[in-house]
Amino acid sequence: MGTDECDKYVGLMEDPSKGYDSSIYGESTEEIRQLNINDPKSSYQNVMNVDSSTANGLIDESYDPMHKDSSIRSRENSYKQQRFQRMLSPERADPFAKSSAGNDVRTYTDIMRETQLDREKARTARMAARSKYESEKSEKHDHNDRDSMPTDSASNADAAYADTPMASDPASTPTPSRWTETPMYGENSLKKSSRWDRTPSLDPSQTPGATPLGYTGSETPLTPSLTQQQAFMRHRLQREIDERNKPLTDEELDQILPSDGFEIVPVPHDYNPVRKQTPLTSATPLFSIPEQHETAEFEVPVDATPAVLADVEIKLEDRQFFAKLFDNVAEDDLSAEEATERRIMTLLLKIKNGTPPIRRQALRTITEKARDYGPGPLFNQILPLMMQSTLEDQERHLMVKVIDRILYKLQDQVRPYLHKILVVMEPLLIDEDYYARVEGREVISNLAKAAGLATMIGTMRPDIDHPDEYVRNTTARAFAVVASALGIPSLIHFLKAVCSSKKSWQARHTGIKIVQQIAILMGCGILPHLKQLVETVAHGLQDEQSKVRIITALSLAALAEASSPYGIEAFDIVLKPLWRGITEHKGKALAAYLKAVGLIIPLMDPHHANYYTREMMVILVCEFSTPDEEMKKIVLKVVKQCIATEGVEPQYICQEILPEFFNKFWIVRNALDRRNYNLLVDTTVEMANKVGGPQILSRLVQDLKDPSEPFRKMVVEAVDGVITNCGVEGVDQRLEEMLIDGILYAFQELSVDDKVIINTFGTLLNALGHKAKPYLPQIAGLIRWRLSTQSPMNRQQAADLVVKVSSAMKVCEEEQMLGHLGLFLYEYLGEEYPEVLGSILAALRSIVCVVGMQRMTPPIKDLLPRLTPILKNRHEKVQENVIELIGKIADRGGDLVSPKEWDRICFDLIEMMRATKKSIRRATVNTFGYIARTIGPHDILCTLLNNLKVQERHMRICTTISIAIVAETCLPYSVLPAIMNEYRVPDINIQSGVLKALCFIFEYIGEMAKDYIYAITPLLQDALMDRDVVHRQTAAWTCKHLALGVHGMNCEDALIHLLNFVWPNIFETSPHLTQAVFDAIDGFRVALGPVIIFQYVIQGLFHPARRVREIYWRIYNNLYIGHQDALVAAFPPIYGANCRTGNSIHQCVELCYTL
């Protein structure tokens, strides 16, 4: 055991304040350097990586201030970045393998022995540190006693000062701190020792005067005279001087001196330059400045890129990890292992940076050859790549997909690499991205199914009592995923053993946390095992360690929340310990116990729930004024749960809870905390559900005029929730006026674009109904005034408010007021700001829907021509609202506009199909249907069919959907002849578009397809025989929708004819075509019955070719799942070995009698 390790423990015992951060940075300089060494955003890294190729050494020309770091590490906090500190462990032995493990492979015994040895080292270090601390403490105490004895010659002042308790006296200062030390009188007094003031003692084994080597982590800094910043500045000045005084080159001399009349004298062979670079003696030891001739990091010649990676983007950080791919080495000179490694690295780089086609091909290749490559070479390349600090979200997603597919192929061969994979995948379980957590759970679940429960437990067992809390946390979450994959009963006995561990409290803590994570992950799936899980963790409430008691209470809370509203019987054994803990504990422990009891109370019957709520509410009310944010969160959640419980009386809530609740929680500070903001609003709404809306609204209405805008927003959101759930019954006129006045004030003082207040305005007016009529003139005047202001935000908010209040104005019969607002908005259709224009169009649409087309002012014939130029606006909000407004006009008042105007609008709508937003494209195709119903399908169809010739795929798809909607609106007979005639054009895009349109048409018209099936069969027959894969795929989809539409319509002859053309495509390899063919066969199964399909299937079930059998058995499986009972009549009689006896295994005698 080293001296440094003992000194570390002694330093922590001497001064308890040393364990706390003295600044906002929690890590030491060395830890910060290690964390930021690979972070491109870190200023520390920018200082260390000085670009030596810069002309003057002062400006980094590669610095881009607009560059945004998209790596995963850039958004992780220090806790999540601990994943980079974990090491990928070597290969482990597989206990289930047939061959015995070699001497170089670690077994479970070796790992447990190493873990035990590390634990003993740590325990010995702590014991040595404690003994050293006690000896130094006794010596210091004796020395202080001798110095504090007064002498006869001491003055009265000295004697008085000697009686003053000293900072170093542990008896007189109960909480020593380095900031509150009392300076001691006299030169011989002892000053409190510090690690940074000590001079490293000389080792007797070293030679005196020898130059010491570079210490890492030594107690005295190597460069006490210069700070890092000073050394760096001195180096920059030195570089600038060297740059200015460097010798002139021949080109520079030619520019200065004339070329004629001078001769270049050769340098003597014995000449040695006197001037040379003098290294800084006091340079900072944390980094070194590279020389000019050194190769920069990631510097690889561009022409060194191999030919197989010609179409793959090569990033700078990839050149370091995939450096072997850029070596000019022939493949014949490589060994088999090296060649395999290069192939894997090539595939991974294609998957990581390649285009979608290249990525799919590489992913398919690495999956198919996973067993040929072997698990070792694969995971030795994939897992370190996953640990790269520059990895981005998309790249990580692709690597996780690779691991998932490889696991499916390798199955139990992954056992020796199980811990490696877990080290990489466990951090995904605590990632902030939801989809990353889902991917991590899926991979670990597949890993557990492939490796088995015994291997998973044996691999993760050493991490259960790991000294690092980060490792224990991720291990607990991984165990929860294993339990959800393999079942809780398979893991319950192991959990009981871990939670009852006597050797380590960390093991008990992790075991109980596993139960908590199981409850969070599986939800109500724990109900069959609830009693066992509660009994497993119940003893943790009396554990000697406070952390174990806290996690036990949190686990019980998670179990209660997951099992709600059932399972109160399982919690009988923990009610008394929890109740006792509420009265005994404080701080975090009290918060955990309160959360557990608060979530168990909703499971009780009403009588007991009322009793426990009354008893616990005394403690909760006392905690209303706590400054701890976590305690606030738990108190609010418990109060919400208790109030919603049946049996709690509204009178008790009004008298005991509401006054203190509003005094302590409805303050400005809670409005600024986003964690408690929503929980406070939800709790208030829950109280309103119990005691009634007027009780809560009367307390909230005064705060609607609070000076703080965040607080006003929180109050308005609470008012919205209360009115939505409880309505305005019981609200008197005075409270109505105060609510309207308060929300008007909040709306006028709105300084940001926030929809909460506007939505609440609409909710209140719609809830008031006819009673809102007296307030509408004031609101309409406010809207008109804000529409005429110069602020774009004010105009936008006024238009948004019109959308919310238009229905209330209709209820109050204020159509004239709506007409005036319509005229006012009509005048502002020339708005220059697109966000404001979009809101104005939405307001006009709401007025049109409420007032109607006939009474709309301005008239529709004047309004629509003003909307046509706005269709050319490319802002998404404007496009969506103007198309929806035109669609409403076409749907309800199309005859009010001339057909020529509709034709002009159709040409402009074609461009809207190029929009990237799906809602815009959907509104466009619906508008085509409305216009076609107004002016007829022929002109619209001509425009749409011409649009099938364009090259943009999504525009052609939108066109086909529009054709289908026109066919549905105007009946198929008006559309089918034109598009069937268009199929004769020998253009692949047009023919594919026609088939896609037919697919959508038969999907939309349903049973009407029986009138057109015989007419469309020859066209589908030709498409199913086409050489183009896309033609056959689209025709198969069309056959599916056609078969489902004519089910039971006596069209079996045409369907069997089409089935004969669909069936040969079952052997195609294209995944999209295969899916379309199988879906078409499922459609025929529904329309024709399973017996006919079975007659096709039985021919190939026992074919000698494996590939043929696989396809036929896949079809049979779908057939069996869909019509299991109907297949009984189709099964042939299967006789025994002796056919003459007439005995059969499956003869179906009763069925034969019936037939």
Automatic annotation (TrEMBL):
<dbReference type="InterPro" id="IPR011989">
    <property type="entry name" value="ARM-like"/>
</dbReference>
<keyword id="KW-0539">Nucleus</keyword>
<dbReference type="InterPro" id="IPR038737">
    <property type="entry name" value="SF3b_su1-like"/>
</dbReference>
<dbReference type="Pfam" id="PF08920">
    <property type="entry name" value="SF3b1"/>
</dbReference>
<feature type="domain" description="Splicing factor 3B subunit 1">
    <location>
        <begin position="190"/>
        <end position="290"/>
    </location>
</feature>
<dbReference type="InterPro" id="IPR015016">
    <property type="entry name" value="SF3b_su1"/>
</dbReference>
<dbReference type="InterPro" id="IPR016024">
    <property type="entry name" value="ARM-type_fold"/>
</dbReference>
<comment type="similarity">
    <text>Belongs to the SF3B1 family.</text>
</comment>
<keyword id="KW-0747">Spliceosome</keyword>
<protein>
    <submittedName>
        <fullName>Splicing factor 3B subunit 1</fullName>
    </submittedName>
</protein>
<feature type="region of interest" description="Disordered">
    <location>
        <begin position="56"/>
        <end position="223"/>
    </location>
</feature>
<dbReference type="Pfam" id="PF22646">
    <property type="entry name" value="PPP2R1A-like_HEAT"/>
</dbReference>
<dbReference type="GO" id="GO:0003729">
    <property type="term" value="F:mRNA binding"/>
</dbReference>
<keyword id="KW-0677">Repeat</keyword>
<feature type="compositionally biased region" description="Polar residues">
    <location>
        <begin position="170"/>
        <end position="180"/>
    </location>
</feature>
<keyword id="KW-0507">mRNA processing</keyword>
<feature type="compositionally biased region" description="Basic and acidic residues">
    <location>
        <begin position="131"/>
        <end position="149"/>
    </location>
</feature>
<dbReference type="GO" id="GO:0000245">
    <property type="term" value="P:spliceosomal complex assembly"/>
</dbReference>
<feature type="compositionally biased region" description="Basic and acidic residues">
    <location>
        <begin position="111"/>
        <end position="123"/>
    </location>
</feature>
<dbReference type="GO" id="GO:0005681">
    <property type="term" value="C:spliceosomal complex"/>
</dbReference>
<dbReference type="InterPro" id="IPR054573">
    <property type="entry name" value="PP2A/SF3B1-like_HEAT"/>
</dbReference>
<keyword id="KW-0508">mRNA splicing</keyword>
<feature type="compositionally biased region" description="Basic and acidic residues">
    <location>
        <begin position="64"/>
        <end position="78"/>
    </location>
</feature>
<feature type="domain" description="Phosphatase PP2A regulatory subunit A/Splicing factor 3B subunit 1-like HEAT repeat">
    <location>
        <begin position="935"/>
        <end position="1011"/>
    </location>
</feature>
<feature type="compositionally biased region" description="Low complexity">
    <location>
        <begin position="152"/>
        <end position="163"/>
    </location>
</feature>
<dbReference type="Pfam" id="PF13513">
    <property type="entry name" value="HEAT_EZ"/>
</dbReference>
